[in-house]
Amino acid sequence: MRTTPEKTPQTGSMLEEISKVAATLFFEKGYTQTTTREIAEGCGISVGTLYYYIQSKSDFLTVFCNIHTDDIDEWERAVRRRMHESSPEETLKVAVWKLVYLIDKRREMVLFWYHTSKSMNAAHSKAIARVQRRIAGQFRAIIEAGCEQGGFRTSDPLVNAINIHMLCNTWALQHWQLRNTYTVRQYAARCQEMASSIVQGCVSRDTV
If we measure between CA atoms, which residue out of 157, 141, 139, 133 comes closest to residue 93? Predict the structure, then answer.
């Protein structure tokens, strides 16, 4: 159940901006230590205005889940359309490219999920786990299609799918290092190259 107001374009856009600030503060200070006043100040709005969008700080966990789910819904639709139009090789490249850019857009939230999982209740944890399985499942479907057509050579599409997913997530998890060497465009291109190597059996061991 969504705990936020009905999502008009203006409301949705503002809520995303507020959520980005909240995710950054949660990661930097800790979920428990961050106050709604600090979130409001970070957004340049009053606490009263903040409470138009949320009822309590805990609502952000639901908001984050909703945003993440909506993002992956859109990503998955785009990838599935590509699967009907292009080869598995091209589909894999598009899926990796779009996911890296999506992770870049939601970098603060990705970091929050990885580093503040203890703040989530069972419902939130299960929701995020379902989305993560969907991402790996979509990569697995692409890899299996490539194997069937003879373009990919791998004996474990699931492990390869998880490895490629984690490779994309590394842009958020290790951004403090990667940003000194790569732009998001360069990293996305590097991920495409590495994903192609993984499914071609050109790596000697798993990278998870």
Answer: 139
In whole angstroms, what is the distance from residue 137 CA to residue 162 CA?
Answer: 9
The pLDDT, as a whole number, for residue 119 is 63
**pLDDT category of residue 207 using cuts at 50, 70 and 90:** very low
Q: What pLDDT score does 208 carry?
A: 38
- DSSP assignment of 87-154, as one string? -HHHHHHHHHHHHHHHHHHTHHHHHHHHH-GGG--HHHHHHHHHHHHHHHHHHHHHHHHHHHHTS---
Model confidence pLDDT, tens digit, residues 153-173: 998 999 999 999 999 999 999
C-alpha distances (whole Å) from 48 to each of 9, 16, 52, 60, 130 are 21, 17, 7, 16, 34
CATH number at residue 144: 1.10.357.10
- What distance in Å separates the CA atoms of residue 208 and residue 206, rounded to the nearest whole number? 6
The count of domains in the chain is: 1
Q: Residue length, the chain?
A: 208
Q: Using 50, 70 and 90 to split pLDDT, how confident is the model at 118? A: low
- pLDDT above 50 (res 9): no
Tokens of 129: 């786990």
Query: Domain range holding 122?
Result: 61-199
Contact (CB, 8 A) for 38 and 17? no
